Amino acid sequence: MKTVLIRVRKNVRAVGVRSYRYIFIILFSLIAVGMILLIVSAFADVSRGVLLAGIISATTASACLAFFHFRLTTYINQLTYLLKNAKLEHIKMKRASDLGPLAEAIVEFITGYVEKSERIETEQTEISLQLQLLKKQKKNIEEIIYSIRDCVIVTDPFDRLLIANDAARELFGFGADAVGSGQIGEFIGHSDFVKTILHSRRTGLRHVKHEFNFETNERTKIFDCIISCVKDEQDVTSGVVAVLHDITREKQISQMKSDFVSHVSHELKTPLASINAYAEMLVDGEAQDTETVNRFCSVIQTQAQRLNRLIEDILNISRIESGLTKVKKEHLSVAILIQDAALMIDSYAREKNITVKIQAPIICDQVYADRDMVSQVIANLLSNAVKYTPAGGTVETAVQVNEAEQIVRVTVTDTGVGIPAGEIEHVFDKFYRVEANKECAKGTGLGLNLVKQIVEKVHGGKVFVTSTPGRGSTFGFDMPLATGVTCKTVLEK
Amino acid sequence: MSEEKQLKVLVVDDEIHIVQVVAIKLRNNGFEVITCENGEQALKLATNEKPDLVVTDFQMPVMTGLELVQNLRSNPDTAQIPVVMLTARGFALKEEQKEELRISACVSKPFSPRELLQSIEEILKATVPA
User: CATH number, domain at B93?
Assistant: First the structure.
């Protein structure tokens, strides 16, 4: 019986749960045979051996049945407990038991389920990370677009505003709420610009470049406009990106340069015209006496010098700007340079009947500077003062020493035409000429810029100007006082 | 050049040396020359002196050469005076303006007084009856 049970058990392990059916049939058969033998022994005379065999077989079969039932129930309870508590590793340990195939199937099912669940979890984490990354990238791109100084406008296929950066909102004067709320024509007053965007979207033209004038705060600004169409997978225009680049300053510079070339060409041609004409007159014998010959030669000479001065001015500014200028600094008295400059301007001032007053006493006014350059600064200021002062006027120079601040201040005050308030801040700009005073005198707009370059860039000083239109102007500069020089007073000449 | 009738030329330029050189050239060749430094003075002189021809600079303070010619043309007394324009900016004067204002010749600076004289003589020959 024991051998049978062992064999049965082995078979059960081998054939799995379905084998239990046969075990139970055999056990029930044995119990039935035992019972039949007991009943038969009660009514018939059966040998004790047969009876005993019947009893033993019935008892053993019952015990086995009870054992199997107990074992099966225990396994099922354990499996239920383990499944409920998701202890997969323990379930795996039960694979070796009689319910092996069932446990194995459950384990396989659960393992598959768990793996799938883990895969989904990993995918979800990845998606979440990608989403975060995309959000961050979107934010970065938006920040880039919003911080661009050029105006950026993006529209959708229905010509609604998708993106308008700060510069665009400032230019067109609409708020952040305009984005996504309506068509661009509702927010942008510049009809030509709107038409161009709509046209680009309809025609799908990828790049259109136009020059647009926009009126902003009573100023006209000029923009270069680049419009690109955004195409989808089917090559259909799904929106438009318009970038407006402010070229007002470039245009102004270009205009200034062109004005400068025009001015300079005029200024160069004027002395050249005199030189050419007088030289030809000499060749043609139009100077009939020595005095006239000398006069003609003198004109040629002064005009050649004038031409040279103009060319020098242009070259000096260019050299100072490029840092190529050679500076020879020495200890100088500003007042003495003023006296020299006044002598040079004297004939011009007398020609115009203008009085040039020079401050006489010189007190410790030494600067450490380039003689030629400072002379040129003073000459330019004096010549401007005489140039823009009507006949009978006065030009006065002054030198002040501020020992506390260690500066020497030079001023040239005239009773000239003056400078309108709106233009005064530009008078030291290169090529700039005061519009109202253009007719008073010719000039290239270089003189005062040269003054500023020499004083500020080369000597670390500061230029300044004050003016009352119709009454006159005061131009001046501060320069650092020379250190280590003994102060002395020079008495009036 | 007729000896009985001395032709009168008005020379206008803010550049004194130019005025002088043109004046000397013309005087040496038998013209009577009157000069001034700006358009305003020129307009008065043209009205009062009635010159046979005006030589004017293009760019001048107070009144430009172009404005001077416009003013001359608007006054019946001076409307017919031939004008020679001296200019350092040839490009500044458009052909239409030249025709509209009946500017007889444009002479670019630097210029040759010899050629200027020739040009003036030709214009006067065509416009002033001998």
Answer: 3.40.50.2300
Sheet of A355-358, strand order: A355-358, A394-402, A407-414, A472-480, A462-468
Tell if the CB–CB gap between B111 and A276 is shorter than 8 Å: yes
Q: How far is CA A226 from the centre of its chain?
A: 18
> What is each CA distance from A41 to A30, A193, A287, A390, in whole angstroms?
16, 118, 178, 161
Q: Give this complex's ipTM.
A: 0.91
Query: Which of A61-65, A410-414, B27-31, B72-76 is predicted least confidently?
Result: A61-65
Q: Which helix (H) or strand (E) holds A221?
A: strand A219-231
Nearest CA in chain B to A276: B110
Q: Tell me how many degrees the CA angle A326-A327-A332 measures, rounded to the nearest 5.
A: 155
Q: Which amino acid is at A475?
A: F
Please indicate, yes or no, if residue B2 is contained in any of the structural domains: no
C-beta separation of A30 from A60 below 8 A: yes
Is B32 within the bounds of a domain? Answer: yes
pLDDT band of residue A488 (cuts 50, 70, 90) is very low
The pair of three-digit structure tokens given for residue A289, joined into one six-digit string: 């006496």
Does a structural domain hold residue B3? no
- Residues in chain B whose beta carbon is closer than 8 A to a beta carbon of chain A? 14-15, 17-18, 20-22, 24-25, 28, 59, 61-62, 88-89, 109-114
Identity of the residue in B15, B61, B113 whose CB atom sits nearest the CB atom of A281? B113
Sorted by sequence, the CB contacts under 8 Å of residue A473 that are 6+ apart come out as A385, A388, A413, A414, A416, A418, A419, A465, A466, A467
Q: Which residues of A touch B15 (CB under 8 A)?
A: 270, 273-274
CB-defined contacts A:B, below 8 A: 66
- Tell me the C-alpha distance between A344 and A457, whole Å: 26
Using the structure block, give the residue that is written with the tokens 């370059």. Answer: A453
First to last CA, chain B: 8
- Looking at residue A478, the DSSP 8-state letter turns out to be E
Q: Which of B19, B20, B24 to mutate to test the interface with A (most CBs of A within 10 A)?
A: B24
Mind listing the pLDDT tens digit for each residue in B49-108? 999 999 999 888 778 888 999 999 999 999 999 999 998 765 567 788 888 889 999 998
Query: Are A97 and A71 within 8 A, CB to CB?
Result: no
Could you count the other beta carbons within 10 Å of the beta carbon of residue A449?
22
Of the partner residues A273, A284, A441, the one whose CB lies closest to the CB of residue B111 = A273
Backbone φ and ψ for B52, nearest 5 degrees, come out as: -80, -20
Say yes or no to pLDDT of A486 above 90. no
Confirm if A356 and A376 have CB atoms less than 8 A apart.
Answer: no
Residues on chain B touching A272 (C-beta within 8 angstroms): 109-110
Select from B4, B7, B54 the least CA-distant residue to B29. B7
Parent domain of B28:
8-127
